[in-house]
Amino acid sequence: MQRVILASDFHLTPLRPREMEVFLEFCREVVAGADRFYVMGDLFEAWVGPKHLKVPGYQPAFDAMRALSDGGTEVVLFRGNRDFLLGAPEAKWVGGEVVGEETVVELFGRRYLLLHGDSLCTLDVDYQKSKRWLRSGWFRFTALRLPLPLALRIAGGLRGQSKKSVSAKPREQMELAPDAVRARFEEGYDALICGHVHAPGDRDYGDEGRALPVHVLGDWHEDGGIYAEIDADGLRLQRFEPSR
Predict the structure, then answer these.
(1) What is the pLDDT of residues 109-122, one digit of tens each?
(2) What are the tens digits of pLDDT across the range 50-90?
(3) What is the C-alpha end-to-end distance of the chain, expressed in Å?
(4) Would you call 34 exposed, middle or buried from its count of C-beta atoms within 10 A (0-12, 13-18, 19+)?
(5) CATH of the domain at 31
(6) In the 3-class helix/strand/coil scheme, how is the chain assigned residue by residue?
(7) What is the number of structural domains in the chain?
(8) Range of the domain at 128
């Protein structure tokens, strides 16, 4: 293995075609040729299951990831808070796998916990309660069997409620909780990598006696986003600036 790319929070939707173009360019210009591509949650603005692909405008994203897979890049999809209904059909379409919302990997001699990141936002108690309900087996079973128009209408309603809730909360309530981060490090990781909070950068939750590095990926817009690249020289956060 020579090069691994990690990115999160693309929030793709046909309603913002320029951002879809940025994703496709990123796949062609940066990810192609990498050994592995981790898409660490919220690839889509919303996702109601395999039937969502019937909505025009999503196919290019799957075609791009399938091209990566066909070219030798392992494609690994995570479930985020907006696309937690991703599953085996989507994994098959891209020729990769869906690993849930977190996984542990050994890369270039270091042990990483990769996760979407919302599980570390434990100060947002209301969100964590709603997450348990939305991730329940009952909800998943029901949601995957709803007719597409109804599923899209419910998803739109949930997104509207989420936006209203987020706007009313202080920023620190929705951030990574230091105690939650430190608790995960007790499991024996060299570093954590996550997205979700839309505040990219390299952080350290340790003290003078021990470093606890967390690398936070960025959300994506028309002007690109912050991703991570890992190789034998280490991990670097980098910005992708698309062509115009």
Answers:
(1) 999 999 999 999 99
(2) 999 999 999 999 999 999 999 999 999 999 999 999 999 99
(3) 32
(4) buried
(5) 3.60.21.10
(6) CCCEEEECCCCECCCCHHHHHHHHHHHHHHHCCCCEEEECCCCECCCCCHHHHHCCCCHHHHHHHHHHHHCCCEEEECCCCCCCCCCHHHHHHHCCEECCCEEEEEECCEEEEEECCHHHCCCCHHHHHHHHHHCCHHHHHHHCCCCHHHHHHHHHHHHHHHHHHHHCCCHHHHCCCHHHHHHHHCCCCCEEEECCCCCCEEEECCECCECCEEEECCCCECCEEEEEEEECCEEEEEEECCCC
(7) 1
(8) 4-240
Q: pLDDT by residue (tens digit) across 128-142?
A: 999 999 999 999 999
Residues 6+ apart with CB under 8 A from 15: 45
Tokens of 194: 């996550």
What tokens were used for 205?
């939750």
The pTM of the full predicted model, rounded to 2 decimals, is: 0.95
